[in-house]
Amino acid sequence: MASSVLIVDDSPLVHESLVRLFADGGFEVCGEAENGPAAIEKAQRLNPSLIVMDLSMPGMNGLEAARRLRQILPTVAIIILSDYGGMFPEQETRAAGIAAILSKVECSSVLLREARILLRQTAA
To answer: Where are the beta strands (DSSP E) in 1-124?
Structure first.
């Protein structure tokens, strides 16, 4: 059975690209959201294995959404995509429940590889 992923991004172009990338990569895209509050609502309902979320979104950024999601779904793997890459201190990202922060300019294969590694770790 494919691992389920919730895609969260406010940019329609990036959003559609991520859905296609994960679907083609063998994941089940169980849901999509355009902002933090919608991601929280959908994650509660869908209980995905993985959440791939933009850092910069209107209303509630990915860091705050991750903090809230960690309280609701403590075992979900969260990957944040950012224009800034790994500029956040590891301690801050781990405290927010984020497993990885990747740059949006990373190769798509890097994103899929990281997602698979995280899901293997949480399954163990």
So the answer is: 4-8, 28-33, 50-54, 77-82, 100-103
For the chain, the straight-line distance linking the first and the last C-alpha, in angstroms and rounded, comes to: 16
Closest CA to 5 of 104, 82, 118, 89: 118
Task: Say what the pTM is.
Answer: 0.86
Number of domains making up the chain: 1
The Cα 93–Cα 96 span in angstroms is 5
Instruction: Match 């890097």 to its residue by tokens.
Output: 110
Contacts of 26 (CB under 8 A, 6+ apart): 2
- SS3 of 98, please? coil
* Per-residue pLDDT tens digits for 98-123: 888 887 777 687 888 888 888 888 77
Give pLDDT tens digits for 59-88.
898 889 999 999 999 999 999 988 765 556
Identify the domain containing residue 105 by its residue range: 4-123
Q: Residue 30 pLDDT more than 90?
A: yes
Compute the distance between CA of residue 87 and CA of residue 102 in angstroms, rounded to an integer.
10
CATH number at residue 56: 3.40.50.2300
